[in-house]
Design goal:
This protein is an alpha+beta fold and 297 residues long. Helix content is 27%, strand content 38%. The strands form three sheets. Strands 1, 2, 3, 4, 5, 6, 7 and 8 form an eight-stranded mixed beta sheet that branches. A hairpin with an 8-residue loop joins strand 7 and strand 8. Helix 1 packs antiparallel against helix 2 and helix 2 runs antiparallel to helix 3. The longest helix is centred in the first third of the chain and has 22 residues. The radius of gyration is 20 Å and the shape is globular. The protein starts with a strand and ends with a strand.
Length: 297
């Protein structure tokens, strides 16, 4: 019986019992069904496989830790942003909690078994509504950009494990990412400036701003709308008077300047001089273009 590396994900609707109590069976069931459908859509979009749905919880697998984390972030975004638009009266308490672990597992007869499943389930138990909780092993398997969006929470004993496990939270909301990134922007002696312009909007970034997020999500700093753009597609950070664009998307980012055109995906690039940024599409195919003017010291 062979094992293979898999990312095991459990996604659970938090507080669904209270939802039934406050809204009634019919309305609550409709919301739960919609929520599960939204989650299932994102799982499929990120090449995941749904193993089973038990009540208000989905168990699924992914071939890589990156796919699992990206799907978990997308599920949180959709439940937070899309579901309330579909249901204007939806209680703010409706949230999902996600636990995941990447490790060797046994895939047999459409089900998955092994220690990795138990660890992933335990991560879900530890998560609160709106959280994504994972392990050091999972974070270590992530691409650098996704790894940067995680933070160590604690080291805890887990039933069935001889040693304690390092617990990490994957941060998916821009405000929280800003708080994590504060160590990158503590210096006040370096004063570069960057100006972004898009569709009549101008956004300035300096060492005090720290970071801006670009994408088509509701909570980003610069909203750019295109079907190829992720909700939180890329971010720009100020570091010691220089500005770095970090792609965290599915389709990548193009940067065009006097030095030519560069393409990055889950990587970072130094911005210098003047140029154009296109999210998800090459410059000659893009209708949405962000211009930048950078003065670094």
């Amino acid at each position: 019986m062979s094992k293979q590396p898999l990312a095991i994900v459990f996604a659970d609707i938090s507080g669904s019992t209270q939802l039934y109590d406050s809204l009634g069976d019919s309305t609550a069931r409709g919301l739960v069904t919609q929520c599960l459908a939204v989650m299932s859509e994102q799982i499929a979009k990120h090449q995941g496989v749904i193993i089973k749905t038990i009540g208000d919880e989905i168990m699924c697998t992914f071939g890589s830790a990156d796919q699992a984390v990206e799907a978990a972030m997308a599920m949180q975004e959709c439940v937070t942003e899309d579901l309330p638009r579909m249901n204007p009266g939806m209680p703010a308490s409706l949230k999902i909690r996600v636990g995941l672990h990447y490790g060797p597992a046994i895939l047999e007869h459409g089900d998955v078994f092994g220690d990795a499943v138990n660890v992933a389930a335990r991560m879900t138990d530890l998560a609160k509504g709106g959280q994504i909780i994972s392990t050091r092993e999972t974070v270590a398997a992530l691409a650098s950009v996704l790894r940067a969006s995680s933070r160590h929470l604690d080291r805890l004993p887990v039933k069935g494990k001889a040693q304690d496990i390092d617990i990490f939270e994957v941060v998916w909301q821009p405000d929280d990412v800003t708080r994590i990134a504060t160590d990158l922007v503590k210096s006040r002696r370096h004063e570069g400036t960057l100006e972004l312009s898009y569709n009549g909007e101008v956004l300035a970034l300096d060492h005090r701003s720290g970071m801006v997020v670009l994408g088509r999500g509701k909570n980003v700093d610069l909203a750019v709308n295109d079907s190829m753009i992720s909700r939180e597609h890329a971010r720009i950070e100020s570091r010691r008077g220089k500005f770095f664009l970090i792609d965290q998307s599915t389709n990548g980012t193009y940067v065009s300047s006097a030095e030519g055109q560069s393409y990055i995906r889950r990587e970072e690039i130094l911005l210098s001089g003047q140029g154009k940024i296109t999210l998800g599409r090459e410059l000659d195919k893009a209708t949405e273009v962000v211009c930048f003017d950078c003065v670094s010291v």
